[in-house]
Design a protein that fits this description.
about 475 residues, alpha/beta, Rossmann fold, 2 domains, 20 helices, 15 strands, binds cobalamin, binds iron/sulfur cluster
Length: about 475
């Protein structure tokens, strides 16, 4: 079979980095003897015409599309084009959105034949070995873990199975991801060395933050790869792809201090020349002095931390299990024992949060020893606790708004105009301080990064003022992992 794995077209690509999810699946599909192409629309800056030409030319047997919630309108357009120009291609979807709302996703996208909810490696190993005639065989389809499929007028969601032993999963197909030709502004502002590769070392998180949808993909139980398996992949990336920096994208990488210590020791011993960052955010309550010192020795120079709010009441509402006191104490610790560059993640416009509490968050952010801050509007991500209450009250959802600088109607009780002004205030007051600007300037290492910083400053100044553009949705890669 000829298989296309696609990261869809978006209007804006803020972070463009090798796509691990598609890479893992490509390895499995190649292993089963098929031809796979990974098409990262952001990296290729693909136009709709380019995409149409490609599917007309290649007539793929299978097109697998990764789907974040904000990408639904774009995914729908891709599917429309596939069905028009290559009707025989079977379309299959996976990723964050369908993991959080499998039935809703299938009813929105009628031409999607199959989907995968959650980690798809175990299911894909079986699915990819089916013959086309098996696609109509319910007895067979039922046996495929995590498969979402249509049976009569219903959508079936098979029970999930994820690998308990992550070492059993083959490395992503790095030869199709080519980290060495990705831009130098990956997730987490600037890199210190290039090329950069993202890496997943653990999957899952046992916490239950009410705004988080991660568990619908990776579950609530944390599983780590063995130190040997992780370090071997890092060495492979260095030797085969020239990678100099690793960005760990796990949900809760620092949860197990003994693991982190073991990994750092091994990194110091075997790959002392690489640098590491944690752009996706770690929990402050998992960090202690010993781990921090060791991480810095191993080359960790930048990390993001989930803070979310400056109000203990709102932190409770979010089920974050952190307090202002602990947050301040750990940030002081990080800055006292290391020079690690720190980004704080904050959410504003949380349901039940007052204007006064947002102001407390802004003041709190400014009072902490942070180098950067990201203020995101609360999103009821499918599968999160927030989502459950939101969807009951808001049946017609505008998916386009599930994006970091957009306000999703009906989430906050504060009027949208006021919320935008508060967001702008947060960005301006945090960033327009001499010590923060000086810190950003110190991070610059290449002329290219000057341009990136310029664009980001523009984003800060324009924050909350952007117009909404429709159909061709915007994608960014800020996130829980946002940047200015
Ligand atoms: C790293 C990361 C990013 C990175 C890289 C994303 C990427 N495209 O590779 C960046 C910074 C770009 C990013 C951006 C955003 N992210 Co993000 N991100 C993550 C994170 C932490 C890990 C993702 C990852 O690489 N996992 C490792 C790989 C192996 O897993 P995977 O990609 O999920 O793929 C597996 C399955 O999903 C499935 N699968 C994936 N694609 C496909 C395709 C097919 C055809 C099939 C069959 C299966 C399949 O199989 C794969 C193997 O098991 C997750 C948290 C999480 N627990 O998942 C949040 C998460 C996915 N992100 C989230 C959000 C909110 C965002 C943003 C919307 C943030 C924003 N504020 O604007 C943007 C949207 C970007 C976009 N539209 O592309 C939310 C969910 C979003 C949602 N429902 O849409 C999550 C769950 C975080 C959370 N706290 O809730 N993100
Ligand atoms: S936000 Fe972070 S700590 Fe909270 S549940 Fe999600 S991954 Fe876990």
């Amino acid at each position: 079979m000829r298989v296309l794995l696609l990261k869809p077209i978006n209007e804006v690509y803020y972070v463009v980095q090798p796509n691990l999810g598609l890479g893992y699946l490509a390895s499995i599909i190649e292993d089963a003897g098929h031809d796979v192409e990974i098409l990262d629309s952001g990296k290729k800056n693909l136009s709709w015409n380019d995409f149409t030409g490609l599917i007309k030319r290649n007539k793929y047997d299978l097109a697998g599309i990764q789907m974040y919630s904000n990408e639904i309108p774009s995914v729908a357009e891709h599917i429309r084009l596939i069905k028009r120009h290559s009707p025989e291609t079977v379309v299959i979807c996976g990723g964050a959105h369908i993991s959080g709302d499998p039935r809703g996703a299938m009813s929105l996208l009628k031409d999607v034949r199959f989907g995968f909810a959650g980690e798809a490696e175990a299911g894909m190993e079986k699915f990819i070995r089916l013959q086309k005639e098996d696609y109509g065989n319910p007895a067979l389809l039922k046996t495929i873990p995590n498969l979402v499929w249509r049976s009569g007028g219903e959508v079936e969601v098979n029970p999930g199975r994820s690998f308990q032993n992550l070492d059993e999963i083959r490395y992503p197909a790095w030869h199709l991801l080519s980290p060495n030709i990705y831009p130098s502004a990956p997730h987490g502002t600037f890199c210190r060395q290039r090329p950069v590769a993202p890496l997943i070392i653990s999957r899952g998180c046992p916490f239950q933050c009410a705004f988080c949808g991660g568990h619908t993909i990776t579950g609530r139980e944390i599983r780590y790869r063995s130190v040997e398996n992780a370090v071997s992949e890092i060495m492979f990336l260095r030797e085969e792809h020239g990678v100099r920096e690793i960005h760990i994208e796990d949900d809760n990488f620092t949860l197990k201090k003994e693991y982190v210590a073991g990994l750092c020791e091994e990194i110091i011993r075997r790959v002392p020349d690489l640098t590491f960052a944690l752009p996706n955010g770690v929990r402050l309550d998992t960090l202690n002095e010993e781990t921090l010192r060791l991480m810095e020795r191993a080359g960790f120079y930048s990390m993001a931390v989930g803070i979310e709010s400056g109000s203990d009441r709102v932190l409770k509402l979010m089920n974050k299990n952190l307090t202002r006191e602990l947050i301040r104490e750990r940030i002081d610790l990080i800055k006292r024992v290391t020079d690690i560059n720190l980004t704080g993640f904050f959410l504003i416009g949380y349901p039940g949060e007052s204007e006064q509490e947002i102001l407390e968050t802004i003041n709190f952010a400014k009072s902490l020893k942070l180098d950067k801050a990201s203020f995101m509007f609360a999103m009821p991500l499918p599968g999160s606790e927030l989502w459950e209450s939101y969807r009951e009250k808001n049946p017609g959802i505008d998916w386009d708004t599930f994006f970091y600088y957009r306000i999703i109607p009906g989430v906050s009780e504060i009027p949208a105009g006021k919320l935008k002004r508060l967001h702008r205030k947060a960005m301006l007051e945090f960033y327009l301080r001499p010590e923060i600007i000086a810190g950003l300037l110190r991070e610059i290492r290449t002329p290219e990064q000057v341009g990136i910083l310029g664009r980001r400053i523009f984003n800060i100044l324009a924050s909350g003022r952007r117009s909404r553009r429709r159909l061709r949705p915007v994608c960014s890669a800020a996130g829980r992992h946002a940047k200015p």
